[in-house]
Predict the structure.
Amino acid sequence: MKKEINVLSLGAGTQSSAMALMAAHGDLPRPDYIIFADTGWEPKHVYEWLEKLKKELSKFDLEVITVSHGNIYEDTLRSLETGESVPSMPFYTKNRETGKKGIVMRQCTGEYKIKPIYKKVRELLGYKKGQQVKELVYMWKGITTDEIARIRESTDKWIKFKYPLFEKGMDRLDAINYVRDKMGEIPPKSSCIGCPFHNDEMWLNIKRNSPEEWQQAVELDKKIRNHPKFRDELYLHKSCVPLDEVDLNENQLSFSDIIDDFENECMGMCGL
């Protein structure tokens, strides 16, 4: 029988924070490792929350390991100047002649979230590149009962996804209440500053409360318009309108749109 290793994938959002706190307080088994994959372009408040959470978990001798593939914002800007290939964000596309809209295949989650965690797990278990992992690794994901559509099976034989909150019958509100009870507050949504899957409420929140981060997103949106690797125009906003020209007050998405985008966004790795 294979040795089992439990790894909590921490996105620094509500659900994964709830899992970590539940492990600390004995409401879940203690994982062998807690790993946070930093894209380098998380909002300031996410890093602030992460530090609070790490401090709380340290009281229970639980350590958060941070890994990184690089800075997705800086990498994308550099690729626009040099033409080098970097994992693509799911930019929205608009054909210059017909106006037909589409979306770029998302590579960022895999390269900036999933692979760095898997690489670190292999390293922690003492494996070199190319060596076969003999252990069975249970990768914990913070998905609740109201997000059943996001539950998936791993395509890697040595990884098996585990959904502790779902297994306990917890929905998102349960997770929120648990975190609030233990921390006195709840975390903000965890996702990259310029994630194209933001709904208008998120964009408006960034614009109002984080002017520097808003300007970064606006700058990137302008620079991707004439991406050297794409014939179509690229945009951060799904309307295919320049971000700083979008009427965020009038273009609110419906609740179903928000859920659909969030489901498409992250495969259980971002925003949790």
